[in-house]
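Postdoc handover notes: sequence design on the structure in folder B. Input tokens:
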């Protein structure tokens, strides 16, 4: 039996090595969007039309003012999960741009959409993860737009959550600050490994959060959406996207998890990480 040295990151499992069985707790695909056309417009006027069939989405991208992205249209296979009533998480991997994956959070009740583009950079760049995220908000054409738009939040800071992805795979997450979280593998092929990586957290609805992370050791990133309203039975849906063992081929797979809140850290108020941004702004007179 080979003894793994967790400090030797060159021996860590590649993204495609994690995939088998990792999706055991994934929610079934819903066809609730089939037959619907959902057109969204971003603040700069960029417009994206989506026509959903049972398993495919045809999209048309029309750039707005100052948008350098070229106009395009294509059809991709997609997966969708109804996270809450009239709230859908949609995931697909571009065929025409295989270095990009698209995550959509579609809130039909509020008439709002949050899009997350996961992009594999052409080459590794100093000071950046190999896979980056681009976040954008939009509204649904013709819908009554209500409530707050999706926005970054510090709500998860201090929480420690145990996540079970299958009977073989389990991890814990500790949400440290607006930028960082720590993970540890509790069960599965990465058992004993741990690290601290970049993260972003957005509030979609009260108690429902989008959590995205970007790893620095393995060239991959993830987008998840989780319902934390019952902290004893948190439900998460997500995607992992990055490069395979060769470092050349994009790997894209979806998964799901059940979680439970283990503990919450309460810092001394003046040392509270959730206040770092406000304190920095106050210090600069912003």
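Designed sequence:
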């Amino acid at each position: 039996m080979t003894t793994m040295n967790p400090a030797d990151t060159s021996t860590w499992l590649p993204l495609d090595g994690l995939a088998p069985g990792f999706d055991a707790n994934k929610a079934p695909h819903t066809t609730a969007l089939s037959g619907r056309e959902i057109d969204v417009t971003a603040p700069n006027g960029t417009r994206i039309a989506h026509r959903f069939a049972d398993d495919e989405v045809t999209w048309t991208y029309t750039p707005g003012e100052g948008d350098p992205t070229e106009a395009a249209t294509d059809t991709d296979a997609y997966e969708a999960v109804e996270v809450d009533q009239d709230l859908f998480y949609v995931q697909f991997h571009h065929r025409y741009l295989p270095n990009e994956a698209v995550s959509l959070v579609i809130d039909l009740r509020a008439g709002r959409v949050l899009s997350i583009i996961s992009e594999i950079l052409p080459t590794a760049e100093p000071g950046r993860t190999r896979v980056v995220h681009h976040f954008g908000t939009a509204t649904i054409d013709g819908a009554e737009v209500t409530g707050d738009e999706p926005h970054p939040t510090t709500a998860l800071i201090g929480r420690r959550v145990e996540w079970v992805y299958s009977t073989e795979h389990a991890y814990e997450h500790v949400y440290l600050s607006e930028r960082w979280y720590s993970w540890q593998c509790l069960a599965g092929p990465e058992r004993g490994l741990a690290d601290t990586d970049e993260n972003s957290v957005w509030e979609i609805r009260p108690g429902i959060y989008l959590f995205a992370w970007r790893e620095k050791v393995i060239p991959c990133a993830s987008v998840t959406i989780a319902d934390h309203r019952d902290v004893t039975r948190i439900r998460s849906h997500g995607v992992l996207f990055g490069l395979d063992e060769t470092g050349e081929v994009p790997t894209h797979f979806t998964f799901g998890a059940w979680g439970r809140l283990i503990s919450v850290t309460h810092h001394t108020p003046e040392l509270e990480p959730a206040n770092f941004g406000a304190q920095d702004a106050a210090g600069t007179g912003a």
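Context for whoever picks this up: DSSP finds two helices and 17 strands in the chain. Don't rerun without checking with the PI first.
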